[in-house]
Structures are given as structure tokens and as C-alpha cells.
Specification:
With 386 residues, this protein is of the alpha+beta class. It contains 17 helices and eleven strands. Helices cover 44% and strands 12% of the residues.
């Protein structure tokens, strides 16, 4: 194929992508560059993946650009702005903060239909049959690195993809095709310069170095991915974050360029918005109720037990006295030990009398080691304060 034809095909892809509502489109070679492979290997070897076992299990496929589509020759990357203005967050003694990407409907449901429609239009646009596969997030693909290769943006010191003069409030999607398109030149290697706002702002010091995030310290990992108990030290750092964390993006100066999303599905009024009432979350007694409330949003990825665990932590951090009856019920009745244990810990911080009664009951009736450890801790703490 001539360079002129590849360039014309690239222009056709851009026109179609815009028609389907994508804010930014780029084209890259399907093969990751060696630097990206090495960075992934080093990140895993240093233990920074924490409990994200799927990252290590899929590492080989992430290194191979054709793993998702045999014969793939080009990678189309798209970016969608999800930013929506909201007043500054106020906990008001009972609200937990939600990461911005989860305010609207789940983008794993919103983006794929438009990506599939874009992929279906490619044969007509290119004037020949092409095989294509559209993916969003969950596929084994180094998507931020691919977006940087395609000229969409650059990887910042906070490890986020940052679009020059646009910011980082963007969701990514990709289409692999077995046709050769003219690749876009990559953006600047990094445009962060001497800025270091993100690392010191992180509540848990999760950046091992510029451009290196240690998932074992990241609040997004602990509040979304991690399924078990959360240590006492990490609980305090969670503050009011009930799902995810945006601090390293909130302080990024590039996000002063953010504009409102054009996708109504991603706006806060379409989903849960910027905060959740911890009392509402603590009242979720079963998975059916949880799915009915959050099934169309990204909150569902935490699962009921983890979200209720988070709500108990936030209630303790905020001093939410109104949560005491619900916490006592969760400590006594919840089917999940992680919820019962964290409910006991939160009771210990909010109401020593109710906490002691709940802890005594747990030590008589509950055989789970975590719950018993929390009950013992509650009783020891009450004794020290007497």
C-alpha cells in the first residue's frame, strides 16, 4: 500500500470516529515498543501489582500486539472525555466520595456499542474487507502506552494518560485491525517537566517514583480491587473515599483545561454522581439489592461486601453517629466476614457501648478469625479508654 493511500485511510478513520462521538482518535503500530514491555516486566517484578494477579497472568499477551487479533497490523485508539463539573465535595458527616469516572453509567457498557459501530463502518470507509476487534479496558493490552504511541497523549508522572491542553479525564478504547494505516507521531515523551504535584498529594505515598505507581498503596486498588480486610493504617488514609481516588488527577495542572463531556451517559445525573450516602450503602443486605442499585454503574466492580466494608471505614473516619444501628446490624447479621469485622471496627470508633456488646456477641458466636480479631481489638480498645 502506498503512503498516500495509508494517509487517506487514516483520515477516513478519523472522520468516522468523530461521527460516532469520539473526542480523540489516533493510530499506532500494533506492536508495543520495547520500553513499554520492559516497564511492565519491571513493575511486576518489583511487586507493584499487589494482588492484581491478572496483570502477571496476562503479561505475555500484553507484550504481543497480535494476541487479541491474529494478523493485526494497526491499532486505532479513541478517547472520550468524561469530565463533568460538580461543586466541591462535602462529606457532611455521612457521604463517601466517588472517583469521577464512576459518576455516570459504567463506561464498559457505554463505549463498546459505539466502538463496535465504528469497527463495522471500517470496511466501507477503507474500501476493502478488514477484520477488526474492539476492546475496552479489560482486554490484555497496554492501552495507555498504545494511546501515547498513537499521539493521543503522554504518560504523566501520575501514570495517567494526559492529553495536551485537554487533561486526563478521558476513557480509552481500542480497535485492532488487519489493515495498515499511517501511524500518528507520538506526543512529547513527557510534558510534566519539573511539576511534582501528584506524588506529595497522594494520601498513601503510592508513587514509588515518577511514572511508577505501587498498587499496594493506592486507594483505588484498596477500595475497588481488593476483596479482603483493610489494615487499620490504610483505613485512616481512606478518609472519605468510598470508591476509588482522584487526588493525583485533581492536583494535575493539565486538568485546568477540562471541559464538560458531550456524552450524557457519562454525566453524574445518569449514574450515582460524586458521592454516596454511607447509610444507604450500609443498608445493602444482599447482592440482589446491590445489583439493583449499582448494576449499571462502575460501582458494581467493587461488589457489595467491599463497598459496605468501605462505607464502614468512611463512617468511622467521618464520625457518622447515625450509622451506629446499621453497623451493629451488619456486625451481627451480615453473611460476609469482611463486613462483620469492619462493622465492628467502625462501631469501636463511634459507640463504645454498642461496640462492646457487639464484640462480646461476636466472640461467643462468630468463628471467623478476622471477625474475632476485630472483636478482641474493640474490647481491648474499650478497656484502655476506661
Amino acid at each position: 500500500m502506498s503512503l498516500d493511500q495509508a494517509a487517506r485511510d487514516r483520515a477516513s478513520v478519523a472522520r468516522i470516529a468523530a461521527r460516532h462521538g469520539f473526542d480523540v482518535v489516533g493510530v499506532a503500530s500494533v506492536e508495543p515498543i520495547e520500553r513499554d514491555r520492559e516497564a511492565l516486566d519491571a513493575w511486576i517484578a518489583d511487586g507493584h501489582a499487589g494482588g492484581l494477579g491478572y496483570m502477571e497472568e496476562s503479561a505475555a499477551r500484553r507484550r504481543d500486539g497480535t494476541a487479541l487479533l491474529a494478523g493485526a497490523r494497526s491499532l486505532i485508539t479513541v478517547a472520550v472525555n468524561h469530565y463533568a463539573y460538580a461543586p466541591p465535595f462535602e462529606a457532611e458527616g455521612r457521604f463517601g466520595r466517588v472517583a469521577r469516572y464512576a459518576w455516570g453509567l459504567d463506561y464498559h457498557r457505554v463505549l463498546p456499542p459505539r466502538l463496535d459501530a465504528l469497527a463495522a463502518d471500517l470496511p466501507a470507509a477503507l474500501g476493502r474487507d478488514v477484520r477488526a476487534r474492539a476492546v475496552v479496558d479489560a482486554a490484555p493490552l497496554l492501552e495507555r502506552a498504545a494511546a501515547a504511541r498513537s499521539g493521543t497523549g503522554f504518560i504523566g508522572k501520575n501514570t495517567m494518560l494526559i492529553l495536551p491542553r485537554k487533561g486526563s479525564w478521558y476513557l480509552l478504547g481500542e480497535i485492532l485491525i488487519d489493515a495498515e494505516l499511517e501511524p500518528d507521531p507520538p506526543t512529547l515523551e513527557t510534558a510534566c517537566g519539573t511539576c511534582v504535584r501528584c506524588a506529595p498529594a497522594c494520601p498513601t505515598d503510592a508513587f514509588a517514583a515518577p511514572f511508577v505507581l505501587d498498587a499496594r498503596k493506592c486507594l483505588s486498588y484498596w477500595t475497588i480491587e481488593h476483596r479482603g480486610p483493610i489494615s487499620a493504617a490504610m483505613r485512616a488514609s481512606i478518609g472519605s473515599w468510598i470508591f476509588g481516588c482522584d487526588v493525583c488527577q485533581d492536583v494535575c495542572p493539565f486538568n485546568r483545561f477540562a471541559e464538560e463531556t458531550k456524552w450524557p451517559e457519562l454525566r453524574p445525573e445518569a449514574g450515582v454522581g460524586p458521592r454516596l450516602d454511607v447509610l444507604e450503602v450500609l443498608a445493602l443486605a444482599d447482592d440482589k439489592t446491590f445489583r439493583a442499585r449499582f448494576g449499571l454503574t462502575a460501582i458494581r466492580y467493587a461488589g457489595r461486601a467491599s463497598l459496605v466494608r468501605n462505607a464502614a471505614i468512611v463512617a468511622a473516619n467521618l464520625g457518622t453517629g447515625a450509622a451506629v444501628p446499621l453497623l451493629a446490624r451488619r456486625a451481627r447479621e451480615d453473611a460476609q466476614p469482611v463486613v462483620r469485622g469492619h462493622a465492628l471496627a467502625a462501631l469501636g470508633a463511634l459507640d463504645r457501648t454498642r461496640a462492646r456488646a457487639a464484640a462480646d456477641l461476636a466472640l461467643r458466636m462468630d468463628g471467623d478469625p478476622f471477625v474475632r480479631a476485630e472483636a478482641t481489638s474493640v474490647l481491648e480498645g474499650a478497656s484502655r479508654l476506661e
